[in-house]
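Morning run. Coffee first, then this:
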Amino acid sequence: MIECTCHEEDTSSNPIELRHNLEPDRFMWLWMKYVAGVNDQYHCTNCLRGKYGKLLSKHNPALTSTPTLNLDEQFSGSYAFIYICGVLKKGYPRTNYSHNLHAVIKPCAGSIDAFQFENWELGVSNGVFERIPCELDLPARYRSLAPEFTTCRIFRWAVCSTLNAGKKTNVE
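And here it is:
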Protein backbone atom coordinates (compact mmCIF):
# COMPACT_ATOMS: atom_id res chain seq x y z
CA MET A 1 0.00 0.00 0.00
CA ILE A 2 1.26 3.45 -0.87
CA GLU A 3 0.16 6.92 0.06
CA CYS A 4 -1.63 8.71 -2.76
CA THR A 5 0.42 11.73 -3.71
CA CYS A 6 -1.68 12.67 -6.71
CA HIS A 7 -4.18 15.47 -6.72
CA GLU A 8 -7.90 14.81 -6.71
CA GLU A 9 -7.83 14.18 -10.42
CA ASP A 10 -10.81 13.02 -12.42
CA THR A 11 -10.72 9.25 -12.93
CA SER A 12 -13.80 9.19 -15.21
CA SER A 13 -11.72 8.85 -18.38
CA ASN A 14 -9.53 6.24 -16.65
CA PRO A 15 -11.77 4.32 -14.25
CA ILE A 16 -10.38 2.31 -11.39
CA GLU A 17 -9.33 -1.10 -12.67
CA LEU A 18 -9.29 -3.95 -10.17
CA ARG A 19 -7.50 -7.23 -10.78
CA HIS A 20 -8.38 -10.09 -8.44
CA ASN A 21 -8.27 -13.82 -7.80
CA LEU A 22 -11.44 -13.94 -5.67
CA GLU A 23 -13.55 -17.10 -5.56
CA PRO A 24 -17.11 -16.07 -4.63
CA ASP A 25 -18.11 -19.60 -3.57
CA ARG A 26 -15.61 -19.44 -0.69
CA PHE A 27 -17.35 -16.43 0.84
CA MET A 28 -20.54 -16.20 2.88
CA TRP A 29 -20.74 -12.55 1.81
CA LEU A 30 -18.67 -10.69 -0.74
CA TRP A 31 -19.46 -7.10 -1.65
CA MET A 32 -18.07 -3.69 -2.48
CA LYS A 33 -19.47 -0.27 -1.78
CA TYR A 34 -18.76 3.12 -3.36
CA VAL A 35 -18.35 5.11 -0.13
CA ALA A 36 -19.44 8.75 -0.04
CA GLY A 37 -19.83 9.20 3.73
CA VAL A 38 -19.95 7.53 7.14
CA ASN A 39 -22.46 7.22 9.97
CA ASP A 40 -20.77 6.40 13.27
CA GLN A 41 -24.03 5.29 14.90
CA TYR A 42 -23.74 1.95 13.10
CA HIS A 43 -21.11 -0.68 12.51
CA CYS A 44 -20.52 -3.10 9.64
CA THR A 45 -21.84 -2.09 6.23
CA ASN A 46 -24.43 0.27 7.73
CA CYS A 47 -21.75 2.75 8.81
CA LEU A 48 -20.76 3.26 5.16
CA ARG A 49 -22.89 5.67 3.14
CA GLY A 50 -22.97 4.97 -0.56
CA LYS A 51 -24.10 2.50 -3.18
CA TYR A 52 -23.23 -1.15 -3.50
CA GLY A 53 -21.39 -2.24 -6.60
CA LYS A 54 -22.75 -5.10 -8.66
CA LEU A 55 -19.50 -6.06 -10.38
CA LEU A 56 -17.66 -7.24 -7.28
CA SER A 57 -20.41 -9.19 -5.60
CA LYS A 58 -21.06 -12.78 -4.61
CA HIS A 59 -24.24 -12.39 -6.66
CA ASN A 60 -22.34 -11.64 -9.88
CA PRO A 61 -22.17 -15.02 -11.69
CA ALA A 62 -19.39 -13.71 -13.97
CA LEU A 63 -17.05 -12.63 -11.15
CA THR A 64 -14.96 -15.82 -11.16
CA SER A 65 -14.40 -15.62 -14.91
CA THR A 66 -13.73 -11.86 -14.86
CA PRO A 67 -10.35 -11.34 -13.17
CA THR A 68 -10.23 -7.68 -14.22
CA LEU A 69 -13.05 -5.28 -13.37
CA ASN A 70 -13.52 -1.65 -14.40
CA LEU A 71 -15.12 -0.11 -11.31
CA ASP A 72 -17.14 2.47 -13.22
CA GLU A 73 -20.65 1.83 -11.90
CA GLN A 74 -20.74 5.22 -10.18
CA PHE A 75 -19.74 8.62 -11.53
CA SER A 76 -16.26 9.80 -10.65
CA GLY A 77 -16.56 12.31 -7.82
CA SER A 78 -19.76 10.76 -6.42
CA TYR A 79 -17.72 8.66 -3.98
CA ALA A 80 -14.44 9.03 -2.12
CA PHE A 81 -13.45 5.39 -1.55
CA ILE A 82 -14.37 1.84 -2.49
CA TYR A 83 -14.71 -0.66 0.36
CA ILE A 84 -14.41 -4.39 -0.34
CA CYS A 85 -15.53 -6.96 2.22
CA GLY A 86 -15.46 -10.75 2.00
CA VAL A 87 -16.74 -12.85 4.90
CA LEU A 88 -15.26 -16.32 4.58
CA LYS A 89 -17.56 -19.36 4.75
CA LYS A 90 -14.96 -21.61 6.36
CA GLY A 91 -15.32 -21.36 10.12
CA TYR A 92 -18.36 -19.09 9.97
CA PRO A 93 -19.49 -17.70 12.36
CA ARG A 94 -17.02 -18.70 15.07
CA THR A 95 -13.50 -18.86 13.67
CA ASN A 96 -13.52 -16.94 10.38
CA TYR A 97 -13.04 -13.38 11.73
CA SER A 98 -9.28 -13.18 11.24
CA HIS A 99 -9.62 -14.64 7.72
CA ASN A 100 -12.21 -12.16 6.42
CA LEU A 101 -11.06 -9.94 3.57
CA HIS A 102 -11.20 -6.16 3.99
CA ALA A 103 -9.70 -3.71 1.49
CA VAL A 104 -10.20 -0.01 0.83
CA ILE A 105 -9.36 1.73 -2.43
CA LYS A 106 -8.86 5.48 -2.72
CA PRO A 107 -9.19 6.80 -6.29
CA CYS A 108 -5.85 8.20 -7.45
CA ALA A 109 -5.43 8.78 -11.19
CA GLY A 110 -2.26 7.29 -12.61
CA SER A 111 -1.39 5.21 -9.54
CA ILE A 112 -0.87 1.46 -9.39
CA ASP A 113 -1.01 -0.52 -6.14
CA ALA A 114 -1.31 -4.10 -4.89
CA PHE A 115 -2.77 -5.79 -1.82
CA GLN A 116 -2.40 -9.36 -0.63
CA PHE A 117 -4.22 -11.05 2.22
CA GLU A 118 -3.78 -14.78 2.80
CA ASN A 119 -4.45 -16.31 -0.66
CA TRP A 120 -6.27 -13.28 -2.06
CA GLU A 121 -4.46 -10.90 -4.36
CA LEU A 122 -5.87 -7.56 -5.48
CA GLY A 123 -4.23 -5.12 -7.86
CA VAL A 124 -5.53 -1.68 -8.73
CA SER A 125 -4.84 0.94 -11.38
CA ASN A 126 -5.96 4.55 -10.83
CA GLY A 127 -6.23 3.92 -7.11
CA VAL A 128 -4.30 3.04 -3.96
CA PHE A 129 -5.12 0.76 -1.04
CA GLU A 130 -5.61 2.27 2.41
CA ARG A 131 -4.69 0.61 5.69
CA ILE A 132 -7.44 -0.67 8.01
CA PRO A 133 -6.76 0.79 11.47
CA CYS A 134 -6.44 -1.45 14.53
CA GLU A 135 -8.45 -0.94 17.71
CA LEU A 136 -5.66 1.13 19.28
CA ASP A 137 -5.91 3.57 16.36
CA LEU A 138 -9.52 4.45 17.17
CA PRO A 139 -10.10 8.04 18.31
CA ALA A 140 -10.59 8.12 22.09
CA ARG A 141 -14.29 8.92 21.78
CA TYR A 142 -14.94 5.53 20.14
CA ARG A 143 -12.77 3.25 22.29
CA SER A 144 -15.41 2.64 24.97
CA LEU A 145 -18.06 1.46 22.51
CA ALA A 146 -19.28 -2.13 22.51
CA PRO A 147 -17.05 -4.74 20.83
CA GLU A 148 -19.47 -4.92 17.88
CA PHE A 149 -18.12 -1.47 16.99
CA THR A 150 -14.49 -1.59 18.10
CA THR A 151 -13.72 -4.99 16.56
CA CYS A 152 -15.51 -4.17 13.29
CA ARG A 153 -12.87 -3.34 10.69
CA ILE A 154 -15.40 -1.49 8.57
CA PHE A 155 -16.33 0.77 11.50
CA ARG A 156 -12.69 1.33 12.46
CA TRP A 157 -11.75 2.37 8.94
CA ALA A 158 -14.84 4.57 8.57
CA VAL A 159 -14.37 6.57 11.77
CA CYS A 160 -10.62 6.95 11.18
CA SER A 161 -11.07 7.97 7.54
CA THR A 162 -10.90 11.47 6.12
CA LEU A 163 -14.69 11.23 5.63
CA ASN A 164 -15.13 11.39 9.42
CA ALA A 165 -12.35 13.87 10.19
CA GLY A 166 -13.48 16.74 12.38
CA LYS A 167 -17.03 15.42 12.80
CA LYS A 168 -18.68 15.21 16.17
CA THR A 169 -19.80 11.73 17.14
CA ASN A 170 -23.41 10.85 17.92
CA VAL A 171 -22.47 7.76 19.94
CA GLU A 172 -20.99 9.30 23.10
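Residues 107 and 127 are 4 Å apart (CA to CA). Good start to the day.
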